[in-house]
Amino acid sequence: MRVLEKAPAKINLSLDVLRKRQDGFHEVRMIMTTIDLADRVELVDISPNEIRIVSHNRFVPDDQRNLAYQAAKLLKDRFNIERGVSISITKTIPVAAGLAGGSSDAAATLRGLNKLWKLGLTLDDLAKLGAEIGSDVSFCVYGGTALATGRGEMIQQIDPPPHCWVVLAKPTIGVSTADVYRNLNLQTVQHPDVDGMVNALHNNHYEKICSLMGNVLEDVTLRMHPEVANIKEQMKRFGADAVLMSGSGPTVFGLVQYESRLPRVYNGLRGFCDQVFAVRMLGERNILD
Ligand SMILES: C[C@](O)(CO)[C@H](O)COP(=O)(O)OP(=O)(O)OC[C@H]1O[C@@H](n2ccc(N)nc2=O)[C@H](O)[C@@H]1O
Ligand SMILES: Nc1ncnc2c1ncn2[C@@H]1O[C@H](COP(=O)(O)OP(=O)(O)OP(=O)(O)O)[C@@H](O)[C@H]1O
Predict the structure, then answer these.
(1) CA-to-CA dists, residue 168 to 28, 38, 64, angstroms
(2) Burial zone of 176 (CB within 10 Å; 0-12 exposed, 13-18 middle, 19+ buried)
(3) For this structure, is 10 an active site residue?
(4) Is the pTM of this model over 0.95?
């Protein structure tokens, strides 16, 4: 049997860090939403009792370091599954970009194996398991739009953003999430208004959403990689309505309300960055069911 799952990327419309915890993680309050930029994960039964990763992207590990491998191993061990699976990952989401590509592949693997192995688990069960793999995996199990708290694994679905376009530009550098959190100085951060953003989404207020976008990790990554600031500047100059770095970066995204404005922003950025995408928001609930 064969199961195909879509693994969409996320962006953070708002990302606040409250404190550092005893376990080394940081307590966050952030708003994540799914966009129409997705990897494809194909799961196929194989006769040897093993997990095989197939990916033609040289930046993606094909062994136990792959988050999709870890997702399959977790289900196999937890539910004593004596079956093999081949996991083919077709990457579209840039790697180490702040877009949760690996986390979304892991989440898609959890959803897909739940079907392939007929485990009968709910999305809540899968999200709980996903938290054992990484902080962003729980959100990626559900997709949609959510307020994420704890270390990012506590998910509350909220209203989706209005229909608009998202332009993404990923500079050639990769960023380590652990390094960015380590270099964050909580004494000096400007906290974004996360609750204001929840309200703006509820009221479907596009201009308010644009004005409230904020990410406390942005300054840290900008200090480490000044070229990210340049991309932000260019994206504003070419006409995006609001511009922010996603997650720990380095990808910068810009919101564009009118399709007529899109070519100017997209083509303008292509002069600065190899990896530029123009996609739709995909923040509605239950898109992955
Ligand atoms: C930046 C975000 O992508 C925003 O959505 C997430 O907070 C990071 O999620 P992630 O990549 O799934 O992170 P994990 O794989 O769980 O953790 C990677 C590293 O980031 C740091 N980390 C991550 C999440 C968190 N709430 N606090 C942290 O300090 C830890 O040093 C951890 O070892
Ligand atoms: N399925 C996968 N796809 C991409 N990278 C993976 C995968 N599994 C493991 N990795 C490893 O994880 C690292 C981070 O990649 P990923 O694309 O998930 O980062 P990210 O988008 O910054 O994640 P996040 O936004 O959750 O912090 C990569 O350098 C790669 O070695």
Answers:
(1) 23, 13, 29
(2) exposed
(3) yes
(4) yes
* Residues spanned by the domain of 273: 165-280
Beta-carbon count within 10 A of 79 CB = 12
Going from the Cα of 95 to the center of ligand 2, the distance in angstroms, rounded, reads: 5
> CA angle 9-61-149, nearest 5°?
40
Task: Tell me, in angstroms, the distance from the centre of ligand 2 to residue 136's CA.
Answer: 11
* pLDDT at position 287: 57
User: Of these residues, 6, 10, 76, 170, which one is catalytic?
Assistant: 10
- ipTM of model: 0.97
- Residue 29 forms part of a structural domain: yes
What's the 189 CA to ligand 1 centre distance in angstroms?
Answer: 18
Number of domains comprising the chain: 2
The pocket around ligand 2, CB under 6 angstroms, is made up of 60-61, 65-68, 89, 95-103, 105, 136, 177, 247-248
pLDDT band at 175 (very low <50, low <70, confident <90, very high): confident
If asked whether residues 70 and 196 sit together in one domain, one would say no
